[in-house]
């Protein structure tokens, strides 16, 4: 059933509490169920909000307190719509799999391998790719997630109950019970509230990240690996493949120091231990369940001699052989698992700071080998199915997550690392000032220090606090790799990399902190760095400089040795957010593409694999695009089975909050990487493509930069958006600016994008595109239009850019944007800047449709259009209310009234973010 939209008295547009159109009776029924449950809760707690839910209330007449409640219920409804959509998507995928087979399912392993087999790709090629495959989504705590963990848990339960309600087996009594539970969970969300009352701490962010592992990822990632093996068996029957743990998760939560003063070495240490305990406790649960299940007795099943010998060894090592045997007489597999469980308990105690009395596991390798021994023991006893079905999932979980859950990256910016290096120079050289950065003398000092033997007795106590803190963080790497897990750390990411010296400086800090290893003994001392040092190139100038920087870097002996030791691969991180903020959408995407192409060729020339770490955000403006299309639009040969990407804030919630969705997202990512790698050189640019994209990028960037350099833009942006008020949401521990300055250059990309989307300008996803296309046509005329249309059909990167621009233009509403502009006190600034935006929007809309051949924006994406159109009326109304709330909040002097307005204002920001599905 589809509810009709009712016009609200006195409003220009209807409320959008009626759900968006979703094809399929079950999806519509799910929305009806959720709507009715929310309506019941509203009637119970605030009957006045029933009119809001039905779209008959004029919320513009509400008091701030009543408006806050209305905004809260709107935000809850948007969340419930998202749950229904995720559920509907899962049902559609299951329907395709049931009726057409898994190979017909887009984004599946089965489809990729079936197509590979059809193309004649041999098993040896598949195995070679599997052996080199490395996929690592990396969770970040960037301030883009508004939901608290306790609210996430309740929405997770709503999803599960909704799924249960779809089952036909329930009696009316049981179904009523499930409906009551659904209402209870919605009521709990209502009474809990989503807004963070206090500023988020790093400790809470760590707990937020681990929530997704506890709820879905510990269980679903091993199942995803099983799905891959099943798909290989279907596509290549009779062939045995070795599948390593190629899919792992990284994290920046607790290790990202870049501009966050709250991430200290002590905080990072705590995060590492919490990450370790999360996985250890999960393994304990798994081993305990195995011990409960594997009750096989020697009377029924003769024990293989090799397993008996290993059991005897484990019992002797435990020091409790008699007690264990008495507890499980005649049950050798339970006795063995008791020994494993005792070692796990000792390992957990050690990580909690206690001193275990019995043996423990020095690393995950020991537990993995013990579980393999158990599998072999069952196989030798002709119970191999039990080993595969029961033991292997636990063993595979340990292989993937080890004793760290995630591979924690450290991140710092070059300003801080350089200050630490300068402090070291002063300590070693006494008086005077260090050589100027970029000078030959500075490079000579770095080179000399990198080859000088490290003094293990050297003290850093005399260094400034900030320098000691930076070195202490590096020292954690050496310590934790030894006592926690060799894979506890992923990499050290160096933000704001501008030169080879910046990267060599990070190597030197790692050396001084004791991270370096002796690769061939103390006599030769060819030291290597086991921690990958990953430069991050963010701005357009940095991306252009990257190939030359990396060519010089890979000629430095210690770097080449370290790269070989790390698998012959040098990782490079590229930033989608700051490049976009720097040069606009088209220029950023083209510069990212070019940098990857050049670095890939450089790696081939030097015999070093270059792997890319994609710093993407959730919104289109920060690189958030459909997974498969985004990967397939990467330059030919640039992935080759190695792919890292950031998963930020609300993206993590969307992808990994529910098990079915998490399994799909992980399979989609891995299958897409496979597909790109199997394509090899794949798409090759046709003659003229690169020149055309270069011209488009240059012209669009010029238009975008003109806007950024327009007098008064900073004042316009701050006044005509909730830029400063976003910080009041308390959705992240990190400040909005790196160094506290008040300029666009220092403003982080997240609040830059977040604020422009709230005020419906959304310039970060389209501004300059129209000027770029128009300039191209003006110069090249009729031939130019033919070139653009050919580019649209043949170039994946250009097609992706134009598609996402079209979708972003649908989010723009100039009438509402004009209302926000009315908050700018300077009429001249307001009129000049808004006129530029208005003109560029009209030009961009015209040019994009001209190239794509469409008549309406995003008509190629009907599901997207329906989803957005269903939300826009309410988003628009909330936006208008936000304009009024901003004006009142900024003008209010009475503290109590200001606080009431602030609550409604923050709920309006949250509501719009939830409705669009992204913030920054």
Automatic annotation (TrEMBL):
Active site per the UniProt annotation: 581
GO MF entry, a single one: phosphoenolpyruvate carboxylase activity
InterPro entries tied to this protein: PEP_COase, PEPCASE_His_AS, Pyrv/PenolPyrv_kinase-like_dom
Swiss-Prot/TrEMBL keywords: Lyase
Pfam assignment, any one: PEPcase
Function according to Swiss-Prot or TrEMBL: Forms oxaloacetate, a four-carbon dicarboxylic acid source for the tricarboxylic acid cycle.
Protein name (Swiss-Prot/TrEMBL): Phosphoenolpyruvate carboxylase
């Amino acid at each position: 059933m589809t509810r009709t939209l009712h016009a609200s008295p006195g409003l220009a547009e209807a409320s959008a509490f009626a759900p968006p159109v979703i094809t399929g009776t079950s999806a519509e029924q799910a929305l009806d169920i959720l709507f009715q449950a929310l309506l019941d809760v509203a009637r119970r707690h605030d009957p006045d909000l029933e009119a809001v839910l039905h779209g008959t209330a004029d919320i513009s007449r509400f008091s701030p307190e009543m408006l806050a409640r209305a905004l809260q219920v709107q935000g809850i409804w948007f969340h419930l719509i998202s749950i229904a959509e995720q559920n509907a998507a899962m049902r559609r995928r299951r329907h395709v799999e049931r009726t057409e087979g898994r190979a017909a399912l887009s984004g599946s392993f089965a489809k990729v391998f079936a197509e590979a087999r059809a193309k004649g790709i041999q098993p040896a090629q598949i195995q070679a790719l599997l052996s080199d495959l490395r996929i690592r989504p990396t969770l970040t705590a960037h301030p883009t997630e508004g939901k608290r963990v306790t609210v996430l848990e309740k929405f997770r339960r709503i999803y599960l109950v909704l799924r249960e309600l779809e089952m036909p087996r329930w009696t009316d009594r049981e179904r009523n019970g499930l409906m009551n539970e659904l209402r209870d969970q919605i009521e709990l969300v209502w009474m809990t509230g989503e807004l963070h009352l206090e500023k988020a701490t790093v400790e809470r962010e760590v707990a937020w990240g681990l929530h997704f592992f506890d709820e879905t990822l510990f269980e679903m990632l091993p199942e995803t690996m099983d799905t891959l093996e099943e798909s290989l068996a279907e596509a290549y029957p009779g062939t045995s493949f070795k599948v390593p743990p190629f899919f792992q998760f990284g994290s920046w939560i607790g290790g990202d120091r870049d501009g966050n003063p709250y991430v200290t070495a002590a905080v990072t240490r705590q995060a590492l231990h919490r990450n370790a305990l999360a996985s250890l406790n999960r393994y304990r649960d798994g081993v305990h369940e195995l011990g409960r299940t594997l009750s096989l007795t020697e009377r029924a099943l003769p024990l293989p001699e090799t397993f008996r010998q290993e059991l005897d060894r484990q019992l002797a090592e435990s020091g409790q052989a008699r007690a264990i045997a008495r507890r499980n007489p005649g049950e050798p597999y339970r006795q063995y698992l008791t020994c494993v469980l005792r070692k796990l308990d000792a390992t957990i105690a050690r990580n909690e700071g206690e001193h275990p009395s019995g043996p423990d596991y020095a690393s995950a390798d020991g537990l993995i080998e013990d579980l393999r021994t158990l599998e072999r023991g069952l196989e030798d006893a002709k119970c191999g199915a039990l080993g595969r079905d029961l033991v292997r999932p636990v063993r595979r979980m340990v292989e993937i997550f080890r004793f760290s859950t995630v591979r924690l990256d450290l991140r710092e910016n070059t300003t801080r690392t350089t200050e630490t290096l300068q402090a070291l120079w002063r300590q070693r050289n006494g008086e005077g000032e260090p050589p100027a950065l970029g000078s030959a003398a500075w490079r000579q000092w770095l080179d000399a220090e990198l080859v000088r033997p490290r003094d293990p007795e050297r003290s850093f106590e005399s260094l400034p606090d900030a320098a000691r803190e930076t070195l202490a963080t590096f020292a954690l790497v050496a310590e934790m790799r030894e006592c926690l897990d060799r894979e506890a750390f992923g990499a050290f990411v160096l933000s704001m990399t501008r030169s080879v010296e910046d990267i060599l400086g990070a190597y030197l800090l790692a050396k001084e902190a004791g991270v370096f290893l002796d690769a061939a003994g103390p006599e030769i001392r060819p030291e290597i760095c086991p921690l990958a040092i990953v430069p991050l190139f963010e701005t357009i100038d940095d991306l252009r400089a990257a190939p030359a920087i990396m060519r010089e870097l890979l000629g430095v002996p210690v770097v080449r040795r370290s790269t070989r030791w790390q698998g012959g691969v040098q990782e490079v991180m590229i930033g989608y957010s700051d490049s976009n903020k720097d040069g606009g959408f088209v220029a950023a995407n083209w510069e990212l593409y070019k940098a990857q192409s050049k670095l890939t060729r450089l790696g081939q020339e030097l015999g070093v694999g270059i792997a890319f770490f994609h710093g993407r955000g959730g919104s289109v403006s920060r690189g958030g695009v459909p997974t498969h299309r985004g990967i397939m639009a990467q330059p030919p040969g640039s992935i080759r089975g190695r792919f890292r990407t950031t998963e930020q804030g609300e993206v993590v919630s969307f992808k990994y909050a529910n098990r079915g969705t998490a399994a799909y997202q992980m399979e989609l990512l891995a299958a897409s990487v496979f597909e790109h790698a199997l394509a090899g050189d794949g798409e090759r640019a046709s003659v003229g493509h690169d020149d055309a994209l270069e011209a488009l990028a240059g012209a669009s960037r010029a238009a975008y930069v003109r806007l950024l350099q327009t007098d008064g833009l900073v004042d316009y942006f701050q006044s005509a958006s909730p830029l400063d008020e976003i910080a009041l949401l308390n959705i992240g521990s990190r400040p909005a600016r790196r160094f506290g300055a008040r300029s666009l250059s220092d403003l982080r990309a997240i609040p830059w994008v977040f604020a422009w989307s709230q005020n419906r300008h959304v310039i970060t996803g389209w501004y300059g595109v129209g000027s770029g296309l128009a300039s191209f046509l003006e110069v090249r005329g009729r031939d130019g239009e033919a070139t653009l249309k050919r580019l649209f059909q043949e170039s994946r990167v250009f097609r992706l850019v134009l598609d996402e621009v079209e979708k972003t233009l649908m989010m723009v509403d100039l009438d509402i944007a004009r209302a926000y502009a009315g908050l700018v006190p300077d009429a001249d600034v307001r009129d000049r800047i808004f006129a530029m935006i208005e003109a560029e929007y009209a030009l961009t809309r015209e040019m994009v449709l001209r190239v794509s051949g469409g008549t309406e924006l995003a008509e190629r994406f009907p599901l997207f259009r329906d989803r957005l159109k269903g939300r826009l009326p309410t988003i628009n109304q909330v936006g208008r209310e936000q304009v009024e709330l901003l004006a009142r909040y900024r003008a209010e002097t009475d503290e109590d009234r200001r606080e009431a307005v602030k609550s409604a204002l923050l709920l309006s920001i949250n509501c719009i973010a939830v409705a669009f599905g992204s913030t920054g």
